[in-house]
Automatic annotation (TrEMBL), chains A, B:
<keyword id="KW-0963">Cytoplasm</keyword>
<feature type="transmembrane region" description="Helical">
    <location>
        <begin position="62"/>
        <end position="80"/>
    </location>
</feature>
<dbReference type="GO" id="GO:0000310">
    <property type="term" value="F:xanthine phosphoribosyltransferase activity"/>
</dbReference>
<comment type="pathway">
    <text>Purine metabolism; XMP biosynthesis via salvage pathway; XMP from xanthine: step 1/1.</text>
</comment>
<dbReference type="InterPro" id="IPR010079">
    <property type="entry name" value="Xanthine_PRibTrfase"/>
</dbReference>
<dbReference type="GO" id="GO:0005737">
    <property type="term" value="C:cytoplasm"/>
</dbReference>
<feature type="binding site">
    <location>
        <position position="157"/>
    </location>
    <ligand>
        <name>xanthine</name>
    </ligand>
</feature>
<dbReference type="InterPro" id="IPR000836">
    <property type="entry name" value="PRTase_dom"/>
</dbReference>
<keyword id="KW-1133">Transmembrane helix</keyword>
<dbReference type="InterPro" id="IPR050118">
    <property type="entry name" value="Pur/Pyrimidine_PRTase"/>
</dbReference>
<dbReference type="GO" id="GO:0006166">
    <property type="term" value="P:purine ribonucleoside salvage"/>
</dbReference>
<dbReference type="Pfam" id="PF00156">
    <property type="entry name" value="Pribosyltran"/>
</dbReference>
<feature type="binding site">
    <location>
        <begin position="129"/>
        <end position="133"/>
    </location>
    <ligand>
        <name>5-phospho-alpha-D-ribose 1-diphosphate</name>
    </ligand>
</feature>
<comment type="similarity">
    <text>Belongs to the purine/pyrimidine phosphoribosyltransferase family. Xpt subfamily.</text>
</comment>
<keyword id="KW-0808">Transferase</keyword>
<feature type="domain" description="Phosphoribosyltransferase">
    <location>
        <begin position="32"/>
        <end position="158"/>
    </location>
</feature>
<comment type="subunit">
    <text>Homodimer.</text>
</comment>
Length: 191, 191
């Protein structure tokens, strides 16, 4: 998605050739028009398959997931909540996720009420790096007896293991921007 | 907003005549069509004033704030982040907020980069009860040298002090559903 790459080059802040902050349009301030365009782009890329529901995770996945749900005609979406600690309840699917950025683990939870069995699910998230968050969402969808039809990512760091691990297990991953390296704190895109 | 009231009656879970959970369309699962309608309703109610920017707070304010930003023609929005603890930085506005629901305090932060001076701001949030979160957002907007042009709330618990406190200070509050009481764990609407 050319407009996204342009905005990453223009506004992205890269720290230690490792962390990309895009607080100016995605993770703190939100550019409503660009986010709605992202939703339309995901709808276009996945228009060959049927999607029943979108699953994302708080916080920064919510806006893009909503844009995608709208572009797909108003399908339901559910966002996993992040909990530091948890009284485990029978009515929730859970996944343990380690955040390499924050260097801490958390538990992602989705109520069983909002993740029925037998659906085709599109997972949406803002970043794909280690793949830990996406893998946690995949696990919850499959625990629910539904199928991961695809994984839509805004920014993929292709040099980290997430994409390869998910693709290696047969999941279809579509990323709107793929970064193959950071050089001198500038992103180098994969295509 | 009649559709919202209908959905609260149909899907809302009320606990101890005190807490309203609307996880089926706002706080966990999101009904994309209904949320976009809420955005259009806020745009209609505030169409007599100029708005430069929307300010909300993670997590559940984000979807409605995005819908409103889209309905207002794609104006910028920024969401405050909630921090448990914090190294105070010069480049952030902060507010201490006590959550009566969670019975804990947190610090809300917004980067100065995304809250410029001299703007007309619409604050959007999902619930108004004690008014603590809205008051914190108001304080940050005014610390930034901008003006609170209005406060848009999805569900107001009119029997708690938030609405009266904000209106008493002259702020314009528009709530899409106003609950004046819970009786036998059912909501009674104000109009």
């Amino acid at each position: 998605m050319e407009e996204l790459k342009k905005r990453i080059l223009q506004d992205g802040l890269i720290i230690d050739n490792r962390i990309l902050k895009i607080d100016s349009f995605l993770n703190h301030q939100i550019d409503a028009a660009l986010i709605m365009d992202m939703g339309r782009e995901f709808a276009r890329r996945f228009n060959d398959i049927h999607i029943d529901r979108i699953v994302t995770i708080e916080t920064s996945g919510i806006a893009v997931a909503l844009a995608t749900a709208v572009a797909m005609g108003g399908i339901p979406l559910v966002f996993a909540r992040k909990k530091k600690s948890l009284l485990l309840k029978d009515d929730m699917y859970t996944a343990e996720i380690y955040s390499y950025t924050k260097e801490e683990a958390y538990t992602a939870v989705i109520s069983r009420h909002y993740l029925p069995a037998g659906e085709q699910i599109l997972i949406i998230d803002d970043f794909l790096a280690s793949g830990a968050a996406a893998a946690g969402l995949v696990q919850m969808v499959e625990d629910a007896g539904s199928t991961v039809a695809g994984i839509g990512i805004v920014v993929e760091k292709s040099f980290q293991p997430g994409r390869r691990a998910l693709a290696g297990k047969g999941y279809r991953v579509e990323a709107l921007a793929r970064i193959k390296a950071f050089e001198d704190n500038r992103p180098v895109f994969a295509e």
